[in-house]
Amino acid sequence: MPDAGLARVRIERPPARWFAEERGILDESESSKRLQNVYSARDNRELACSYDEWAEDYEDDMLSLGYAIPAVAAGFVGRHVPIGGTVLDAGAGTGMFGSILRVLGYEDIVGIDISERMLEKAREKDAYRSLHRMVLGEPLSFDAASFSAAVCVGVFTTNHAPPEALDELVRVVEPYGRVIFSVRDDVYRNEGFEEKQASLKKEGRWRRVAMSEAFQPFPAGNTSHMSRLFVYKIR
């Protein structure tokens, strides 16, 4: 995620191509190597191992880059999700976003992530009712309509969760609930998210109610890629 709390998933595919500006995000520091490891993971096992190894330093690395997605997402959640329901943090990571939700008054939060070590860090924050190791892109072990909202921050990025993960997020959110997620802009255009989001609309499964302008997820980092936030209402 390099973008954020990542619950992190993917199907097997070749390692990501690294452009010069991406390689320079952290000036070839140890933090840069950890970021490159997660972007270039070839399968879920490698991805989980990379995040396990990164868990101890993850928050410091992300905050040093001015990681902006959680703040933008918090504004969208506060605007579109009433306090009082159960929220799924899909890609909870170390619990950065869950902690923000608690401060905003959301008290019934369930988190999932691909990395057990990241989940261990999240448990230390005491922001979640429960935390589970699950993989986005695979069936989730929740009943249909289990949540008032699902939030997925920083997960839909290079070599992470596939667009098919949206099907399960739609399934586990109750009718009229919200699915809120960020997508890296080039991933949205080139890796099937634009088509998947349109397909779910055509099938009558959701309706888009908001989309952010493109913004830099790492304003303090040397990177040119952009991200967007989307809000959908389940039908």
What descriptors fit this protein?
22% strand, 7 strands, 36% helix, 235 residues, globular, 10 helices, alpha/beta, single chain, Rossmann fold, seven-stranded mixed sheet, disordered N terminus
Structure description:
This protein has 235 residues and is of the alpha/beta class. The chain has a single domain (69-234), classed as Vaccinia Virus protein VP39 (Rossmann fold, 3-Layer(aba) Sandwich). 36% of the residues lie in helices and 22% in strands. It has helices spanning 20-23, 30-39, 44-54, 58-64, 69-80, 96-103, 116-123, 165-172, 185-190, 193-202, and strands at 86-90, 108-113, 130-133, 147-156, 173-184, 206-211, 227-234. Strands 3-2-1-4-5-7-6 form a 7-stranded mixed β-sheet, with helices on both faces. Helix 7 (116-123) links the parallel strand 2 (108-113) and strand 3 (130-133). The chain is globular, with a radius of gyration of 16 Å. It starts with 19 loop residues before the first helix and ends with a strand. Residues 1-27 have low confidence and may be disordered.
Stated plainly, the CATH topology is called Rossmann fold
CATH level 1 class label: Alpha Beta
Number of strands: 7
Poorly predicted segments: 1-27
- Indicate the proportion of strand residues: 15-25%
Q: Strand arrangement, largest sheet?
A: 3-2-1-4-5-7-6
Give the % helix.
25-40%
Specify the structural class.
Answer: alpha/beta
What is the chain-wise order of helices and strands? HHHHHEHEHEEHEHHEE
* Main beta sheet strand tally, sense and closure: 7 strands, mixed
- The figure for the number of domains is 1
Number of helices: 10
CATH architecture: 3-Layer(aba) Sandwich
Task: State the shape.
Answer: globular
Rg result? 16 Å
